[in-house]
Amino acid sequence: MYKSLCFRKTDMIIPVATLAAAFLIFFAGFRYVAGGTGDTVVISVSGVEYERLPLDTDADVIIPGERGLNNHLVIKDGTAEITDALCPDKICVHQKSISHDGETIVCLPNKVVIEIEAEERGGVDAVAR
């Protein structure tokens, strides 16, 4: 009366293909959420803009933090990263390098924020009616 409820290899094709498609869409979409490649590195200390640097020019900057602790910012090959910091946890050092509009690196103990900005912003983010 009832057939055996065994799974065959072909029974897994649809779930596996669906998961693979979902991962591809997620990672492809995630790349565009951050925005296009940025033009400018904006450095802020304690909420006040400290310096603006072009992303396409290599630079090596020591940023004095809020408590006198320094962060070492390196801009190279179109990316910006904190290579050394005198803060206790060094979370900012372990963050990946940034190069896309809207990406940030934050050092909370020193109150330093590094942000990438694009000179030309895209169109409308959202429309409300």
Low-confidence stretches: none
Strand order of the largest sheet: 2-1-7-6
> How many DSSP E strands?
7
User: For this structure, what is the CATH homologous superfamily of the domain at 40-117?
Assistant: N-utilization substance G protein NusG, insert domain
Strand content: 25-35%
Give the CATH architecture of the domain at 40-117: Sandwich
Radius of gyration over C-alpha positions, nearest whole angstrom: 22 Å
CATH topology of the domain at 40-117: mini-chromosome maintenance (MCM) complex, domain 2
H/E topology pattern: HEEEEEHEE
Average pLDDT for all residues: 82
CATH top-level class of the domain at 40-117 = Mainly Beta
Summarize the structure.
The chain has 129 residues and is an alpha+beta fold. It has 2 helices and 7 strands; from the N terminus they run αβββββαββ.
List keywords for this structure.
33% strand, alpha+beta, 7 strands, mini-chromosome maintenance (MCM) complex, domain 2, three-stranded antiparallel sheet, 2 helices, 19% helix, 129 residues, four-stranded antiparallel sheet
SSE topology sketch:
Layout: H1 13-33, E1 40-45, E2 48-54, E3 59-64, E4 70-76, E5 79-85, H2 91-94, E6 104-107, E7 112-117
Antiparallel strand pairs: 1-2, 1-7, 3-4, 4-5, 6-7
Q: How does this model look, in words?
A:
With 129 residues, the protein is α+β, with helices and mostly antiparallel strands. It contains two helices and seven strands. The relative contact order is 0.18. Strands 2-1-7-6 form a four-stranded antiparallel β-sheet, with no helix packed on it. A three-stranded antiparallel β-sheet has the order 3-4-5. The longest helix has 21 residues, at 13-33. The mean pLDDT is 82. The protein has helices spanning 13-33, 91-94, and strands at 40-45, 48-54, 59-64, 70-76, 79-85, 104-107, 112-117. A hairpin with a 2-residue loop joins strand 1 (40-45) and strand 2. The protein has a domain at 40-117: N-utilization substance G protein NusG, insert domain (mini-chromosome maintenance (MCM) complex, domain 2), CATH 2.60.320.10. Helices cover 19% and strands 33% of the residues. The N and C termini lie far apart (58 Å).
